[in-house]
Automatic annotation (TrEMBL):
L-tryptophan binds at residue 141. GO terms for biological process: tryptophanyl-tRNA aminoacylation. The keyword NADP does not apply. A motif ('KMSKS' region) lies at residues 201-205. Its EC number is 6.1.1.2. It holds the Pfam family tRNA-synt_1b. The gene is trpS. NCBIfam families: trpS. It is found in: Cytoplasm. Transmembrane segments: none annotated. This is Tryptophan--tRNA ligase.
Length: 342
């Protein structure tokens, strides 16, 4: 391999598909990106090409993309330490995805559970081919940069597994090319559940807004949603995913935000009511999200500066991505364009 990073590299991204990132994105991914920012060479990008695998309004997509970038920075991504960029600014993602499409089995792609879930919603006939090959583009996003790890929430495990399989397959057929990346999934916050339906993961596409905590919601909306979270019959505050999924979700949110083990929280709530727990969770979430929201809005006041940061990030990302793509093109047997050396 031609370039070796000085620190091990990680890469991850979040889709710009909603009005705001949500608490699951924040606790499952962003918090962990920020926590280890000094330990790795970091690439954090916005998969805007993934967003168009389902219909998007072009004006809204542009707005959501800038808003996502602003939330990365407001949430703690430091552009002096991390490369921040848009997927569509680095054409090598689509170019590598094509090569990987050609070594992915149809059956293998058909087994991806997120495709099955998403396509089931609108009917398989209506699902785009882009949605079907989505995990292959994600594998390209990852493998282009040869990272050791991909910090994600639990729902992305299967996709990272596909990236690993494709890396191994390519290396086996064409010689050592890709690093086989590990999913970096924290125990805490790896899966945050919907507040109204605490057996389903919190998600932008959930059935109603009341189960969702958005980073950009007004603090009073956030507090109200937490205080109206579905709990369970009974009164005892216990960590029990089977029988008390609502209370368990609230405990896990509080544990992640306050860095307190769930067991210690449960001990502290002996003899207290669900209402006490909800009030504490609401306070902790609002205290954490309020400054992020304020900083995001400030950053969005200067879109030209955001665009400049993204352009700078894309140039740095391309320096890495172009080297990997040239290596891959050469290995699969494409003739180099005239005037370049293979
Ligand atoms: P996306 O945009 O759905 O989610 C972004 C990140 O948030 C995590 N996450 C959650 N974590 C805990 N609880 C939840 N309820 C929850 N909901 C979401 C996700 O696990 C993810 O880490 N396919 C990816 C985007 C992507 C990507 C990549 C990620 C495209 N290319 C390359 C890593 C590397 C996705 O749709 O994530």
């Amino acid at each position: 391999m031609s370039e070796t990073p000085t620190r091990p590299r990680v890469l991850s991204g979040m889709q710009p598909s909603g009005e705001s990132l949500h608490l699951g994105n924040y606790l499952g991914a962003l918090v962990n990106w920020v926590k280890t920012q000094d330990d790795y060479e970091n690439l954090f990008f916005i998969p805007d090409m993934h967003a168009i695998t389902v219909p998007q309004d072009p004006v809204e997509l542009r707005g959501r993309t800038r808003r996502t970038a602003a939330q990365y920075i407001a949430g703690g991504i430091d552009v002096a330490k991390s490369i921040l960029f848009l997927q569509s600014h680095v054409p090598e993602h689509a170019q590598l995805a094509w090569v990987l499409n050609c070594i992915t089995g149809f059956g293998e792609a058909s087994r991806m559970t997120q495709f099955k879930d998403k396509s089931a919603k609108g009917g398989q006939e209506m699902a785009s081919v882009g949605l079907f090959t989505y995990p292959v583009l994600m594998a390209a996003d990852i493998l282009l940069y040869r990272p050791v790890g991909v910090p994600v929430g639990d729902d992305q495990r299967q996709h990272v597994e596909l990236a690993r399989d494709l890396a191994k397959r390519f290396n086996h057929r064409f010689g050592d090319t890709f690093t086989v990346p590990e999913p970096f999934i924290q125990k805490e916050g790896a899966r945050i559940y919907d507040l109204q339906n605490p057996t389903a993961k919190m998600s932008k596409s959930a059935s109603g807004p009341n189960g969702l905590i958005n980073l950009l919601d007004e603090p009073k909306v956030t507090a109200k949603r937490i205080k109206s979270a579905v709990t369970d019959t009974g009164t005892v505050i216990a960590h029990d995913r089977e029988n008390k999924p609502g209370v368990t979700n609230l405990l896990e949110i509080l544990s992640t935000l306050t860095d307190t083990p769930v067991g210690a929280l449960v001990d502290g709530y002996q003899g207290r009511m669900y209402g006490h727990l909800k009030a504490d969770v609401a306070d902790a979430v609002v205290a954490r999200l309020e400054p992020i929201r304020a900083r995001t809005l400030e950053l969005l006041d200067d879109p030209a500066e955001l665009d400049r940061l993204l352009a700078h990030g894309a140039a740095k990302a391309r320096e890495i991505a172009s080297v990997t793509l040239a290596d891959v093109y050469n290995k699969v047997g494409f003739l180099p364009p005239l005037g370049t050396v293979a």
